[in-house]
Amino acid sequence: MISLPTTWPYRLISRPRFQNWANRTPILHCFVRRDGAAIFDVVQGFVKSQALVALVELKVLEQLRSGTKSAVDLGKVAEIPTDRMNILMQAGVALGVLRRSRGNRYGLARHGAAILGVPGLQQMIRHHHIFYRDLADPVALFRGEKETELSKFWPYVLGFDGTAAADVVQTYSDLMAQSQILVANDTLDTVKLTGMQCLLDIGGGLGVFLQEAAARYPDIRLMLFDLPQVIEEADQRLGTIGLRDRIKLQAGSFKDSDLPAGADVVTLIRVLYDHCDHTVVELLKKVFAALPAGGQLIVSEPMSGGHRPRPASDIYFAFYTMAMQTGRTRSPAEIKKLCQAAGFTKVRSSRPRRDYVTQILTAQKPK
């Protein structure tokens, strides 16, 4: 039997004459329709996301929390003509975030209710205006021909020197705090800190991860290390929620100084993928040096699927970190190699229940 090249079916499918013939063939037309629908779903993806942005910006989901409303009533509040409000509401139903009931009234569907219930999700949806502007010319983005807005939004990425405006620091710190809750819970559900004496969270922002750890482990000592202006914000926030005395704060940059000693477990929550390989290599060396023998490292962040690319990490987060202009998503295998090069052993990876939000890797300093 002659072995045909594996590419021949795709060369055949790429021919317009084959597509026309297959669409008229009873057995094949279902595959043609399914493929066409899948491709069109990708093409219309940006429009779908913008419809969701409109629903969030106009607070439609918030208004429907208490019950159903008509497009007329919602349009009056939003100052949008009824015919256009009807288009948006129909789009919401098509997206699965709204449901249509009798009398042309609309209410929350399960996904719409979840958007209200997931911490930080609405803030992230609003924040995407910046990301989408960077993606307006994707070819220029890939060629590195433009300065991106995301690199300015996250001032620490390109070498934060402490001169960023307070409102910029406040904005990115608040967004990080809101979106950190899901990551913190999924991480702590997956990795147990039982028996640990002291936890150091590097780049921990306003202390959201440590707040969740404090609630689960009342006896563990906690330390937060981040940039000076972020530590100022964290100090105020932790004081407000009654955790200022529980968490030791230390300001600094892991790029320029050594890490605090005394912790037997170090967490890097959504830190590595923000930075280039050189920075990651140096950071892991510093973590290794700061830990005692037997100490543990926990890395939690979106990770690439490697040989099996995944939409969340290999499209969304990969493009996002590229627009930030320094970091990139890495596969668990890549991070494992970096950890081993720094001296860590017993490197293991795992996927929490929501692996589209974060994945986890643990490593140990040899005893």
The number of distinct β-strands equals 10
Q: Provide the residue-averaged pLDDT.
A: 88
Q: What is Rg?
A: 24 Å
| Low-pLDDT regions | 157-164
- Helix count equals 17
Helix content: 40-55%
Largest sheet: 7 strands, mixed
In whole angstroms, how far apart are the ends?
58 Å
The coarse silhouette is globular
What is the ordering of alpha helices and beta strands? HHHHHEHHEEHHHHHEHEHEEHEHHEE
Biggest sheet: strand arrangement = 6-5-4-7-8-10-9
**Global structural class:** alpha/beta
Please outline what is shown here.
The chain has 367 residues and is of the alpha/beta class. It has helices spanning 8-13, 16-24, 29-43, 45-57, 60-63, 71-78, 82-95, 110-117, 121-134, 138-143, 149-153, 166-190, 208-216, 228-240, 277-290, 311-324, 332-342; strands at residues 69-70, 98-101, 105-108, 198-202, 221-226, 247-251, 265-269, 296-301, 345-350, 359-364.
Topology:
Layout lengths: L7 H6 L2 H9 L4 H15 L1 H13 L2 H4 L5 E2 H8 L3 H14 L2 E4 L3 E4 L1 H8 L3 H14 L3 H6 L5 H5 L12 H25 L7 E5 L5 H9 L4 E6 L1 H13 L6 E5 L13 E5 L7 H14 L5 E6 L9 H14 L7 H11 L2 E6 L8 E6 L3
Parallel strand pairs: 4-5, 4-7, 5-6, 7-8
Antiparallel strand pairs: 1-3, 2-3, 8-10, 9-10
Describe the structure.
It is a single chain. With 367 residues, this protein is α/β, with parallel strands linked by helices. The chain contains 17 helices and ten strands. The strands form two sheets. The chain has a seven-stranded mixed sheet, sandwiched between helices. Strands 1-3-2 form a three-stranded antiparallel sheet. The protein is globular and about 70 Å long.
